[in-house]
Write a structure and sequence with these properties.
Helix content is 9%, strand content 33%. By secondary structure, it is mainly beta. It has one domain (23-157). It has a 5-stranded antiparallel β-sheet with strand order 8-7-6-9-10, with no helix packed on it. A 3-stranded antiparallel β-sheet has the order 4-3-5, with helices on one face. A two-stranded antiparallel sheet has the order 1-2. A hairpin with a 6-residue loop joins strand 3 (42-46) and strand 4.
């Protein structure tokens, strides 16, 4: 933090102060992770106006601005719509640890959903992965579930 004092001289203060915070993922976000933790399955939400199905569930439909409330079960399979093999190390904000590299981050259109869901794909060989491949979610063991995004270990290529 920098500021100027009354004489116009620049004064600089440096300090470390923890800034703990929490945020809510809302009713539908909570329900989404609860379904994964308790039933090892995905749910989405369907718009009664235009019929779009979103995963994770959200409160309002983007195209028609209708409030959403109809939760629907979704498949644990989908199709890769885009991906990137990452070779740059960084600290994973979910764990506070450096994510092992390389890893593949992908956009997946879950069967039954109209939007994409992003997550790790369990393949880093560019010769063995391409857009359009079918994938299936692999979940943690039931006794290790915590009710968050890490309950989905990754997506495995199935075809």
């Amino acid at each position: 933090m920098s500021t100027q004092n009354r004489q116009g001289e620049l004064m600089q203060l440096t300090f470390a102060y923890p800034m703990p915070y929490e945020w809510s993922i809302g009713l539908y976000g909570s329900r989404f992770f609860q379904e994964i933790k308790e039933k090892r399955r995905f749910i989405g939400i369907k718009c009664n106006g235009c019929g779009m199905v979103y995963v994770p569930p959200r409160r309002v439909c983007g195209p028609c601005f209708k409030e959403l409330s109809e939760l629907v079960p979704l498949s644990d399979t989908g199709v890769i719509t885009a991906f990137s093999v990452v070779n740059y190390p960084f600290i994973d904000p979910n764990t506070g640890l450096q994510r092992p590299i390389p890893y593949t981050y992908g956009y997946i259109r879950l069967d039954g959903a109209d939007n994409i869901f992003s997550h790790i794909i369990n393949e880093t060989d560019l010769g063995r992965i391409h857009v359009g491949m079918k994938v299936r979610a692999v979940f943690k063991e039931p006794d290790r579930m915590q009710g968050n995004i890490q309950d989905i270990k990754y997506f495995d290529i199935i075809s």
